[in-house]
Amino acid sequence: xxxxxxxxxxxxxxxxxxxxxxxxxxxxxxxxxxxxxxxxxxxxxxxxxxxxxxxxxxxxxxxxxxxxxxxxxxxxxxxxxxxxxxxxxxxxxxxxxxxxxxxxxxxxxxxxxxxxxxxxxxxxxxxxxxxxxxxxxxxxxxxxxxxxxxxxxxxxxxxxxxxxxxxxxxxxxxxxxxxxxxxxxxxxxxxxxxxxxxxxxxxxxxxxxxxxxxxxxxxxxxxxxxxxxxxxxxxxxxxxxxxxxxxxxxx
Length: 251
Known about the structure:
The chain is mainly beta and 251 residues long.
């Protein structure tokens, strides 16, 4: 965020001098081979793009403007590819996206901001794929989701939270598939349900709970289908109903 703000400040400070210099200099020029060279101003999708070309490829800092004339995007280029910082700014002047590129692929931190500067989504990338921690926040600044990625897929623990900060769910992933014990909680923080997954399918023990922690329903899944004995319990712990399943069908 600090680097992004410094980048914007330096850009604003130099923008006047740059525009005055380029007004008197030739622009939108090509060389004998038809390659774009030097400073260019181009209208693309109703937005002006301004920056320099070297041998037909974008080079250095490029700016894109909203149709109303406000700056919309600032991005660094090297040999025609985005390399370095890219910023996106809305019509009110708020920074809404800060991200980093390497050879046109997202690489490093990527942050989406709420109006006023608070992060809304923080995500790391490697070679264009989500990699590492991802965090999503509520407007009050408290976490909504915390998850981990490897090679673009969820891997390990992912957690979701209620707006007051209490945990809502905790899931485990293996190469993008649900795997292991998954837990969900009610708004008071009490455990509501546990279920077991294998390779993305329900497989293993399943339980639902009363608010005081006593078991409400217990059973087993096999390859995504109910299997064996399922029992429903009263709040006092007495067995109310027993049902047997084979391949998801009641027997």
